[in-house]
Design a protein that fits this description.
The protein is α+β, with helices and mostly antiparallel strands. It has one domain (about 5-160): 2-Layer Sandwich (Alpha-D-Glucose-1,6-Bisphosphate, Chain A, domain 4). Helices cover about 25% and strands about 40% of the residues. The protein has an eight-stranded antiparallel beta sheet. Strand 4 (about 65-70) and strand 5 form a beta hairpin. The longest helix has 18 residues, at about 145-160.
Length: about 160
């Protein structure tokens, strides 16, 4: 069941965005949905009208990942990737992120933490940007709408698992 009110997006300090969302699913299922390309391509799409033709993941420390999204109506593409710095399955992943089109300056580091309690999993993603300017650019981009849509799709996917 979708629970849009369940998403919290806040800032911490000058350079961080913290995203929190609870899912009615065990941590292992949530971790798999966040790390397996065949599952990611079903939910990590942002607003409606986008698809993900490229989703490559080498899930190991030092391994790389690459995502490319395509806007279906006109073929516009947006790509990003990074390197895994830390992986503690199924509870923690730390990775860099950099978009092909530099719509914010520099590279960011995302820390994903999954905590299970009573069969429900709380996801907390903290993204550290190189500057306040970079973080604020991301906040102004409308990313919250895309995150909300993607996490609603993830919740639906987990319900069916």
């Amino acid at each position: 069941m979708n629970n849009p009110g369940n998403l919290k997006l806040t800032t911490r300090g000058d350079r961080e965005i913290v995203i929190t969302r609870a899912f009615d699913a065990p941590r292992k299922l949530v971790f798999d949905a966040l790390t397996k390309p065949e599952l990611i391509k079903q939910w990590l799409l942002g607003p409606d009208g986008w698809s993900m033709p490229v989703c490559e993941i080498d899930l190991k420390v030092g391994g790389k990942y690459r995502y490319v999204w395509r806007r279906d109506k006109d073929g516009t593409e947006m790509g990003m990737g990074g390197v895994y710095r830390e992986i503690v399955a199924p509870e923690r992943v730390v990775a860099t992120e950099k978009f092909d089109q530099s719509w914010y300056p520099g590279e960011a580091v995302g820390t994903l933490v999954l905590i299970e309690q009573g069969g429900k999993t709380t996801l907390t993603q903290t993204i550290l940007y190189e500057s306040r300017q970079a973080r604020d650019s991301v906040l102004k981009s409308g990313m919250e709408k895309g995150v909300l849509a993607s996490y609603d799709r993830l919740a639906n996917l987990l319900e069916k698992a």
